[in-house]
Every structure is written in C-alpha cells, then in structure tokens.
Design goal:
This protein has 453 residues and is α+β, with helices and mostly antiparallel strands. It has 18 helices and 15 strands.
Length: 453
C-alpha cells in the first residue's frame, strides 16, 4: 500500500497488492477517518466501505472498521468475543502526555475503574443493575417531564422575541445539561462547569486535541472527581431519594461500589446524558428546516414527531461508532480480524446499510417496529439514557415548531460541524424565525404540568 497526494493536500492509500487490506482493484480507500472532508461528511466514505470493503483496516488509527448493519449487530450481541473495555476510545490522548499522567496520579479514582459501557460481563451485569436501580429511567423521565417542558419554554423565551438565535449555545446545549444537572442535583448556574468537564472527556477520548488541552483536561478531571465526592459525602451523612442518594446508599444485598467505580459511573451519566442529545437536537432541527416541506408537514401533525425522531436518529446518528477489542480471531465473511484487534462499529454507516433498510435515503414515514436503528447501540450495552434523549427531543421539537413561526436556517452565518471522530452534530447553528411572544407565568404552567403528570 502506498500514499498518494491529492490536490487539496490530503493523502489517500492506493492499493498496490492483493494482500493489502484495502485492495479492491483500482478502487481507492481512505488512509484516515480524521481528514477534514471525512469528518464533515463521512457518508460517501461509509458507502464505499460498505460496498467494497465492509471489514476494512485503517492503518492511520490501527483500527478495523465494520460498516454493515449485520456485522455491527453481531458484535454487539457477542460481548464474549468482543470486549467493551475500549468502547469509547480510539486513541486516549492521556497516553501520550507524561505531564497529564503525572497529574492523574493524584486522582482519588486510582486505580481507574471501567464500568458500564467500558466493562464486560459478568462485571457489567452488576454495574447495569445498579445504574438502573439508581437512575430508574421510566420513573425519572415521567417525574422530570414537567421540568423538561419548563426548561424548554424558558430557553425559547430567552430568544423568541429577537427572531434569531444560535441554536446550539442557546438551546441544544443547555437543555440536556439542565436535565443532567437535575439528575446529579447540580444548580443551573453550574451547568457551564459540568459541560466543560464533559467536553474534556469527549475530546480526550477522540484523541485529536492539543497537548495543552490534554493537560488542562487532566486537571479538570480531578475537579470533577472532587465535586462528585463532596456530594457523595453529603448523601452518606443525610441519605436522599435521588439518583446520587440511591447510588451511594445501596441496599444490603448489593455489592458496594468503590470510589473509582462510583466516579466512573457518574462521569458516564454526565457525558452520556448531554453530549449525544446536544448533537442530536442540532441535527434534528437542521433536518426539519432544511428539507423542503418537512416543517409544514410536522406543523399539520405534531403526532408525527416521534417517528421523525427515529428516522433522524438513523441517518444522523449523534454517536457514529463505538469501539471493541476482539478477544479471539473472528471471520467476517472472508476477512479474518485477529485477536487483539480494535474494531470501530460504525453506526453512522450501519444505519444507512441498503442491505438492511432497502434504501439509505431519508424517509420520515419509515416504520421502526421491525427494523430498529443502532443509534443507541444494541444488546447489553444499549444506552441506558435513551428514554431521556427521546423525551427531550420530542418535547423540544414540538415546542420549537409550535412557538417559532417562519422557522428557518439563517442566511447570514453558515452552520459549523463538529470535527471529532465518531461525533455527528453541529458546533454552531444559527436559525431565524418571525419574532414571537414569551409565555407568561411559566411557574404556573409548571405547577399545572406537574399535577397532570
């Protein structure tokens, strides 16, 4: 295999041998998934991989990409063959910074624990059971729904009279962060701090960040740990019936969580509760306002929004992939992935696999009762917070399309995409609309919605 320069300065790998993992006659395959054009729009690369090399080795990152639905689903259903201990990481940036590693030696979470999506059975079974008991997703979603509605209306009130806003910073980021803050019992005035911790974790796992950012992220990791441990101490002194209280004060028949385990679970709740939802809210609104006729159709029947949400989850999966380690040699068709290999299960591609869906094209009427997407994973590691993400997204879109007439993309500032491997969403998304009135007496509305719930 050899590199060949292109006019835009990037490089491709060109197959020169039938033994090369990318050999496909005269076809060309990318040497990296980190090229700017691929991060901006990966779907052409995904389609090429599905068609020509569905099990492909990417030497730049030393990972194997699985791009077809059935292969990704098979891996998710067989944790005994594919370990989850590197589920969220392609290249953990801490490993290349001696200064960051020295800072992390001060952590109260050492030795660091791997829980939930970063663990395998039988350990995973224990963590999952503890999380479900403490989080109580169905009960908590119902209890938080009136607060979600209030937050949504408060956020819209913050910009509705202006006729424009930057949607990510003014809505898509604060909404899920305030929901996560409610779960973690954090005041709204501290959500910027929570978001910074979450962003650091994602950036470190993606790996393509500066050395200075790696070091600052290590310091802020210690800040997050101290913050959570203070709340843990409070609940040990005075037990509470909330998520942290139930997590800390476990029933007698449950094996006690260590400090590193507890901190790792809280970190995953923080990141999982906001990152994907923020990105998905941006992608959902962008899809609704950029596809001709779709906004009008929704306004005529808001009952279609839940179905639409599922289709956008499929075509714009906020988490484009998770990682696994092969615990044994495994053949996918005629390609053998060796023991110890790192695999990226490419949900962004699998969710557009024509062999499974018939067509990858966007279809807001698609029936998901029989062919579910993989946007929230599958099997024992399916996202524990997916009910929160769905409820937030449905409530948000209902309110936005009802309250903001003339909703449209701004023609004054273009959208800016996220540029992290495995993340699909927007950093900046300016929208415009006809100025609309605020809702009067939101506190009375919250009281009414709470009684109704």
């Amino acid at each position: 295999m050899e590199e060949q320069g292109k006019r835009d300065g990037t490089k491709e790998l060109v197959s020169t041998s039938a033994d090369c993992p990318f050999h496909a006659g005269s076809k060309r395959f990318p040497s990296t998934l980190l090229a700017q054009e691929t991060l901006l729009d990966p779907f052409g690369v995904y389609k090429m991989l599905r068609s020509e090399r569905p099990v492909a080795f990417i030497p730049d990152q030393n990972i194997w990409i699985l791009s077809r639905y059935d292969d990704c689903k098979f891996v998710l259903e067989h944790p005994e063959k594919f370990s989850s201990k590197e589920a969220v990481s392609s290249t953990n940036a801490y490993r290349r910074s001696a200064e960051a590693l020295e800072i992390l030696k001060q952590s109260k979470a050492s030795p660091r624990a791997r829980t939930l999506i970063m663990s395998d059975p039988p350990e995973h079974d224990r963590y999952r059971e503890i999380l479900h008991r403490a989080l109580a997703p169905g009960q908590t979603v119902r209890a938080l729904t009136p607060k979600m509605k209030l937050i949504i209306d408060e956020l819209i009130d913050g910009f509705c009279e202006r006729g424009l806003c930057e949607f990510i910073q003014e809505f898509a980021y604060p909404l899920p962060m305030r929901v996560v803050a409610a779960i973690l019992d954090v005041p709204d005035d501290q959500i910027d701090m929570l978001k910074a911790w979450s962003d650091d974790f994602i950036a470190v796992q993606a790996g393509n960040i500066s050395d200075d950012r790696i070091v600052s992220s290590a310091r802020r990791t210690l800040e997050f740990e101290d913050f959570i441990l203070r709340k843990v101490d409070d609940r040990r002194r005075e037990p509470t019936d909330d998520f942290l209280g139930r997590l800390v004060n476990q029933p007698p028949n449950e094996e006690r969580l260590s400090i590193p385990e507890l901190l790792n679970i809280c970190l995953q709740v923080l990141v999982g509760g906001n990152e994907t939802t923020t990105n998905f809210l941006g992608s959902t609104l962008f899809t609704i306002v950029s596809r001709p006729g779709l906004l009008g159709d929704i306004r005529q029947s808001v009952a279609r929004i839940p179905q639409l949400i599922e289709e956008i989850l499929r075509v714009e999966s906020p988490l484009q992939g998770l990682f696994r380690i092969a615990t044994e040699d495994h053949a996918f068709g005629d390609v053998v992935v060796p023991k110890g290999a790192k695999l990226m299960l490419c949900f962004g591609s699998a969710n557009r696999d024509e062999a499974y869906y018939g067509t990858a094209e966007f279809d807001p009427t698609r029936d998901y009762r029989h062919n579910m997407h993989l946007a929230f994973g599958h099997g024992i590691h399916a996202c524990a917070g997916q009910a929160f993400a769905r409820r937030e997204s449905v409530l948000a879109m209902e309110a936005l399309v009802n309250r903001l007439p003339g909703l449209r993309l701004s023609d004054k500032a273009p959208p800016i995409r996220q540029m992290l491997l495995g993340i699909r969403g927007f950093k900046v998304l300016h929208i415009e609309f006809d100025p609309a009135p605020k809702i009067s007496n939101l506190s009375a509305k919250l009281a009414h919605d709470t009684r109704a719930a």
